[in-house]
């Protein structure tokens, strides 16, 4: 059984993962360590923010809240700058704490902690790593959202692992349904709306095409069905590319 979802003061959520960091690009687990966006990550944020605004965000009806880790906060400022809206920072939206894996590459984890790595690849709980477990991540992220001011929409700027646990909690999915949804790409977003007493996932892992967008227009978005280069968080999916490393859940 899953815990009851608390009432939130907004009926629509846009859950937006931060842009790329050098650690993403080199396959290094970040967790709650704090590397900044790289040049591509800053470009991703700048290209994506106009598209989010064009999707119906108005300053007087939108609240933007972000993890206080610099890669998320910097991503969020690309949006608040366009909206001329304040940015709320909340440490409860930080990435999943990874304990002894933080700062290591996949190869280093596999060499130092082979049993943990095997559990991770198989989708089993990772024992002995330290850090946080998935329910605790979901609980703190939900608690942060319950304290938002009333608004028509909240943009939640967070991390791959935390975004996954938050979406699963909102949809009331139990641990047996982990990894049903693929992870967010760098600067990918999902949208949920409340219908009655339940949340419904309307869009998942949307990304803006990797082309320069005119200042006043958003670049075209592509769906999650298309391959993305910087998508999976390391415990969420297959070990496909170096950019996969971000979060563990």
From TrEMBL:
InterPro entries: His_Pase_superF_clade-1, His_PPase_superfam, PGM_Phosphatase. It comes from the Bacteria. GO terms for molecular function: phosphatase activity. The active site is at residues 18, 95. Substrate binds at residues 17-24, 71. GO terms for cellular component: cytoplasm. SUPFAM superfamilies: Phosphoglycerate mutase-like (SSF53254). Coiled coil: none annotated. Residues 216-249 are annotated as: Disordered. PANTHER family: BROAD-SPECIFICITY PHOSPHATASE YOR283W-RELATED (PTHR48100), GLUCOSYL-3-PHOSPHOGLYCERATE PHOSPHATASE (PTHR48100:SF62). This is Probable phosphoglycerate mutase. It comes from Geodermatophilus telluris.
């Amino acid at each position: 059984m899953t815990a009851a979802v608390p009432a939130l003061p907004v009926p629509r959520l846009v859950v937006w993962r931060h842009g790329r960091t050098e650690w993403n690009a080199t396959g290094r687990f970040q967790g709650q360590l704090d590397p900044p966006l790289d040049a591509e990550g800053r470009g991703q944020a700048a290209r994506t923010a106009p598209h989010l605004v064009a999707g119906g965000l108005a300053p007087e009806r939108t609240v933007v809240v972000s993890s206080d880790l610099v890669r998320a906060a910097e991503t969020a400022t690309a949006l608040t700058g366009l909206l001329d809206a304040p940015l709320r920072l909340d440490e409860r939206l930080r990435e999943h704490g990874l304990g002894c894996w933080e700062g290591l590459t996949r190869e280093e984890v596999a060499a130092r902690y082979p049993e943990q790595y095997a559990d991770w690849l198989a989708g089993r709980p990772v024992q002995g790593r330290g850090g946080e477990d998935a329910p605790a991540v979901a609980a703190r992220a939900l608690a942060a959202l319950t304290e938002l001011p009333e608004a028509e929409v909240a943009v939640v700027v967070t991390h791959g692992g935390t975004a996954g646990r938050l979406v699963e909690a909102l949809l009331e999915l139990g641990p047996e349904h982990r990894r049903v949804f693929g992870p967010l790409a760098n600067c990918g977003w999902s949208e949920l709306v409340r219908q009655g007493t339940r949340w419904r996932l309307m869009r998942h892992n949307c990304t803006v095409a990797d082309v320069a967008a005119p200042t006043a227009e958003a670049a075209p978005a592509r769906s999650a069905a298309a391959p993305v280069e910087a998508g999976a968080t390391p415990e969420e999916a297959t070990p496909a590319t170096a950019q996969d490393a971000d979060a563990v859940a």
